[in-house]
């Protein structure tokens, strides 16, 4: 039997940056999120190229039984009174779950399932289970970058369209020096 030693992929837990390995990176800008924010005038006033978040994913086979891992870096900022957030999604395969691990910054994970919303604080060291059939979104009401490591099945996929019409049932808005959750009525 042959024995090989290899270096694992690495992540700097303080910064949330992968330090070894090839990455697939994608930055989502303000202009890519038409209709996401409540204050459309404030959204239109921002330069379309303003980055909201970057996702760095370690490559892996896209087949049954494989896992993907990536880090989302959600920058601080607001559109009107609404804090920067990720687009949010269901999985195309709704029965697929996911884990998030807080790495840097302080923010919120919004979960929505069957019309019910749950907010979980996300911070360095926090562990979040996203159950099957649950839409999820990160929100950054802080002053620094919010980074979270995610692990999900390679075949889960992302369904952004399912939330296009009604969106999430809660929006996180600035309230003085803090934030408040505003329930959205259909």
Automatic annotation (TrEMBL):
One of its GO terms (cellular component) is cytoplasm. It comes from the Bacteria. One of its GO terms (molecular function) is glucose-6-phosphate isomerase activity. Residues 33-178 form the Glucose-6-phosphate isomerase prokaryote domain. InterPro entries: G6P_isomerase_prok, RmlC-like_jellyroll, RmlC_Cupin_sf. Keywords: Gluconeogenesis, Glycolysis, Isomerase. Pathway: Carbohydrate degradation; glycolysis; D-glyceraldehyde 3-phosphate and glycerone phosphate from D-glucose: step 2/4. This is glucose-6-phosphate isomerase. The lineage of its organism: Bacteria, Pseudomonadati, Pseudomonadota, Gammaproteobacteria, Enterobacterales.
């Amino acid at each position: 039997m042959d024995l090989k030693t290899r270096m694992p992929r690495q992540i700097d837990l303080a910064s949330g940056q992968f330090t070894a390995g090839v990455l697939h990176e994608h930055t989502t800008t303000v202009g890519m999120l038409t209709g996401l924010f409540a204050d459309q005038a404030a959204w239109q006033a921002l330069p379309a190229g303003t980055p909201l978040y970057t996702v760095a994913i370690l490559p892996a086979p896209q087949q049954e039984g494989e896992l993907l891992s990536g880090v989302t870096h959600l920058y601080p900022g607001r559109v009107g009174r609404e804090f920067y957030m990720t687009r949010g999604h269901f999985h195309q395969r709704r029965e697929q779950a996911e884990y998030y691990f807080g790495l840097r910054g302080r923010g919120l994970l919004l979960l929505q399932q069957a019309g019910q919303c749950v907010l979980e604080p996300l911070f360095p060291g926090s562990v979040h289970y996203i159950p099957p059939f649950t839409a999820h979104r990160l929100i950054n009401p802080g002053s620094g970058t919010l980074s979270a490591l995610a692990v999900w099945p390679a075949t889960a996929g992302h369904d952004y369209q399912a939330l296009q019409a009604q969106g999430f049932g809660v929006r996180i808005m600035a309230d003085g020096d803090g934030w408040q959750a505003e329930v959205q009525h259909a």
